[in-house]
Write a structure and sequence with these properties.
18% of the residues lie in helices and 32% in strands. It is an alpha+beta fold. Strands 1, 2, 3, 4, 5, 8, 9 and 10 form an eight-stranded mixed β-sheet that branches. The chain has a two-stranded antiparallel ribbon with strand order 6-7. Strand 2, helix 3 and strand 3 form a beta-alpha-beta unit. The longest helix has 17 residues. The chain starts with a helix and ends in a 9-residue tail after the last strand.
Length: 229
């Protein structure tokens, strides 16, 4: 069993209660290039970038999330690609993961919180906009620019696996194939579960949609009941 998996098997009930109100989202880098027209009755269809996903149940779930966001923006869904003003192409995935090392303040410090309880970087419940996942350890915790990396007060070391996930969304005008939107959302996490990751990536992609062309922004989807930042 890997060190990270061993850490995930240990939980302190008192610390869990102390941290039950804590929440963290999925830190995501979103890059968008866009020339989207203002909504004026345009319609769209959503298609997978990978033909093998066509008609797939998993793809349909993610496409429905995108569909709802586009409708909220003021566009409408077309009955067929021929009748659509835009074609929205989606691609998503996650890599095989890479082992990394993180250092964190020693549990032997003056406050004596214990080796895997309060204060340990792995110990944190987590949420997403789509519900509370109820685990003691947040797979989203290690995002971009983690504050524990490189601290001068580090004492202990843990090895864990980090995964990089992505969502690509391209929108083209059906009349002439002109590209109107090219967006990529990328995130690093300690989970490779696409059913957890993709909804958050979609939410990040549509935060401030369509965005400023050529700009890369960092977005963290907030827990339920909190405002976006």
């Amino acid at each position: 069993m890997s060190i990270s998996k061993k850490l995930l098997t240990i939980a302190a009930p008192a610390a869990l209660l102390a941290l039950s109100a804590c929440a963290t989202g999925l830190p995501t880098k979103v890059t968008r290039f866009q020339a989207m027209p203002a909504p004026q009755g345009q319609s769209f269809v959503i298609q997978p970038a990978d033909p093998r996903d066509r008609g797939g149940l998993e793809f349909s779930r993610y496409a429905d999330l995108v569909r709802r966001h586009l409708i909220a923006q003021g566009y409408s869904e077309a009955p067929s690609p021929r009748a659509a003003t835009f074609v929205v192409e989606l691609d998503y995935g996650v890599d095989q993961g890479k082992q990394e090392v993180v250092t964190y303040p020693s549990a032997r410090g003056a406050f004596g919180y214990g080796p895997f309880g309060y204060g340990h970087p792995f110990y944190r419940p987590y949420y997403s906009r789509y519900g509370y996942f109820g685990r003691a350890y947040s797979p989203f915790y290690y995002g971009w620019n983690d504050p524990f990396w490189g601290s001068p007060f580090d004492r202990d070391v843990s090895v864990y696996t980090v995964y990089t996930s992505y969502l690509d969304m391209d929108i083209k005008r059906t009349a002439d194939g002109q590209s109107l939107f090219e967006g990529t959302a990328k995130a690093r996490s300690r989970t490779d579960d696409l059913q957890t990751l993709v909804p958050n990536l979609v939410e990040a992609m549509f935060t401030g949609f369509p965005g400023n062309s050529g700009e890369t922004v960092r977005i963290t989807v907030p827990p339920p009941g909190r405002d976006r930042r």
